[in-house]
């Protein structure tokens, strides 16, 4: 344990811990540091309410994922939390007291009363004994659980040296140049990562071996998490090895001075889901190395997170809001930053978006201003100065994103180099440059920009469907029913749109999961889990899911509404075509959005996009279904609104102890009843009609019953149809010999959107600029015609008026 760090006993009570640590030399020094002034109340009990972030709670506008703090069950998501040591339970104390009370009472009674009392006492004693047994059992169980948890957090699996030796498999030779620690290589082999991705190849040598700061930009899904994660683990492992050697040489006890218990890496991500994902990803690599990684995000109780930090993990991954809440509350593990060796901003450009950087700025202000030299080593660290020397290499800052280069002319600045940029750092962190500089990024930082001019993932095929706003539902349903293979995310910009389409799709029998910022954290994680577990699942999400989420097998991304910025478009689309797989994105574009789409394309230096191939003969049937679904939705919505209104009235009347007279007259009551009945019958009829339509595959308009159409039919059913058809055709040949009455399966293969796009070929490629210009031309002509019409109309009216005046 590091010098000055509290022992387990010291940490048993939060209050005691705070009190003691406040008087400890570390904190006294901490209080005197200039950056401590950024803490509310002098780094003490600031409320740290995260107001800048809570401003976005419940917004129906663009979402960013800085959310309300709700309760989630950590154990469900693999977050190991050491339990707080509790004092003797109040219940046990109480029963003891009751027993004493009874003994005293019995002395005041007569014989009978005494016998009765004795009997009662015996009964109670028996009960007490039973309770004791139960308590004992519970205690044992609890102890066992605590032991298990402590084991999880403190006693990470022992390193199997024998296994470590067998890592230089020829299959993984591509990793050799990176000279990674055998324990890291062991995990790489276990995960089957044959070679480093380009960003990893570029970052690891610079960051891990040359100790550079890094600004990294590479396409979505290109393995950026490991590009900054591997150098962190590598350096921590190297340091551990070096310190062990030095101590062994000096004949010191390794365990005594082992550099455990201080925060070494702080990784900040913009969303909770991303923080949990990064934690899981790093944990995979860290567990063999016995390095602890802990997520600190909103949605968990603060106390539980403080307990999580009591295990003193080396790496913390968190969102700015919760991190700052704990830091400003003086959470010792998060404010003792003297040994912080890595500060990482993942999805950095998201952090500087308006209003999202207040907490981040406060966190950055907490970082030690300069990376202290050995001479500045505090007195308390001198006892293990050898370790301190090893640890006290300069702090490295990593700033990563897929879209850094998209932010205003940053690409040029990247090329010029940070050093020559003269931007002032006195203002807010409103650019990546100021953010990086303020975080302590050194002038010789390695700038690794692997994004191509289009920024979008290499294997992503993009397409669009141009339609009226009101027809977007129909086109989405078309995609889902004809090409609903593989996982798909449908992105909306507003929660209102998300609710609308998820309800329509559910009525149409398509099960979808939803994800937006107004959902409870538990529900959000469950939605992601279910989606991850379903091979052909559909997730309807807002932009809270746009960044970082890494779920294998997402084949299609649909932009139901266009995002407000090119960056968000890139991140949304980047949920597919990840880690060397391909994928496709489909943007549904209404006529109002064409110019926005054209300007999006310009940001990616794209001239042409492919029009997603549509078979219009399916549209009449789709519209029929959709019309029924909309009517059903409308009636159900009215019904539930009425019910909610009614129960609101009833609740309030009940509170005021009033009888609510629902109707003014008997006639009104009867009419209302009739109306309800009619509406309920209509609803049943509509539901039945829709059920009938849904019970058969989607049919094109030219459908002939002689043919068994397979559109919208699952591959399995398709196969069965083909078998029947084959059988029938053989029978037909045998009986008539002319092949008449043959059953033919014409079914459109249920191909996934990417395949449909490829099958369509290049004819569907459209010059987006040309289309936008054409549309602009049409609209201008329309406006001109309208103006001309109005002019003629006014002219005629004036003439009529004149004539009437002359007549008078
Ligand atoms: N060397 C590798 N070989 C194969 N797969 C890898 C390799 N490195 C990482 N991956 C996998 O690639 C996927 C994407 O990685 P990661 O999430 O780090 O991408 P990213 O660049 O951060 O994406 P985004 O910009 O969307 O956040 C993950 O599933 C990860 O396990």
Automatic annotation (TrEMBL):
Organism of derivation: Eucalyptus globulus
Signal sequence region: none
Name of the featured protein: ATP-dependent RNA helicase
Family to which this protein belongs: Belongs to the DEAD box helicase family.
Lineage: Eukaryota, Viridiplantae, Streptophyta, Embryophyta, Tracheophyta
Highest taxon of source: Eukaryota
E.C. no: 3.6.4.13
Biased composition regions of type Acidic residues, renumbered to the chain: 119-128
Helicase C-terminal domain sequence ranges: 459-620
Domain DEAD-box RNA helicase Q: 173-201
Gene3D superfamilies in alphabetical order: P-loop containing nucleotide triphosphate hydrolases
A Pfam cross-reference name: DEAD
Catalytic activity field: ATP + H2O = ADP + phosphate + H(+)
UniProt-listed InterPro entries: DEAD/DEAH_box_helicase_dom, Helicase_ATP-bd, Helicase_C-like, P-loop_NTPase, RNA-helicase_DEAD-box_CS, RNA_helicase_DEAD_Q_motif
